Amino acid sequence: MLWTALYWGDSTALVRGRWIFIPSLLVSAAFLIAMGIHQSDAKATAKRSPASMSMPERFTLSMAQVEERLEDLEEGVRILGASFSPSLSQRRNLYRESVSGVIEQYRAESLRYRRVHNSLQSLVMAGSAAVTTLAALEAKQWTWPTISMIALGFCVTIATAFTGYYKYRERSYFLQQTADAIEEEANALTLGVGEYLTQPEDQALAMFTQRVETLRNDQRRRQQQLDQPADHAPAPSQSPV
Description:
It is built from eight helices and no strands. It is mainly α. Helix 7 runs antiparallel to helix 8 (201-227). The model is unreliable at 2-11, 13-21 and 49-55 (pLDDT under 50).
């Protein structure tokens, strides 16, 4: 419109187009200002965020570069370990701190293998009972007493197999026995009776800790004996009556 008014000398083109040109110009200016404000806010947020500073580096490094940096860090750790000779007490403390990780690893692996073994053993017992039940279904007249007898026999076989393998009664007995013994020690320490009567507070706590740990160790040994097969497991120190 401006070029038409200047080239052809028609000033009315400006008057006719002002109602379209001016609002369009204002909308475009507002849009550009809003985009500039948004980009400035985004840049300011990226500068304030530590995580955003590491994002480009994390995504631009290749796997080879990451492995190279890891090797450099491991080499630095080895050099630092060779140049620093800790004392005996420090080595013992470091070993004590590392033992907890080893214990958790062994317990996690033991739990995983126990779950797998128990699952397979349950499948074996259920499969054996199912095979026996299916064999009993041949050449039978289907009456309600026959069906009830077969179903009841299957349930009894499953219950007997699981009870004999997992030893629920023995586990319950030994757990309750250990809990009662620990409760007895805790009550004696709290009330100051028995062997805790004449002991100072620090020695009484040390004695209580030692006895509780002994009870817990005995419980763990009994638990391991119950987890062993029947032909290899030694007889527990005490058995439920």
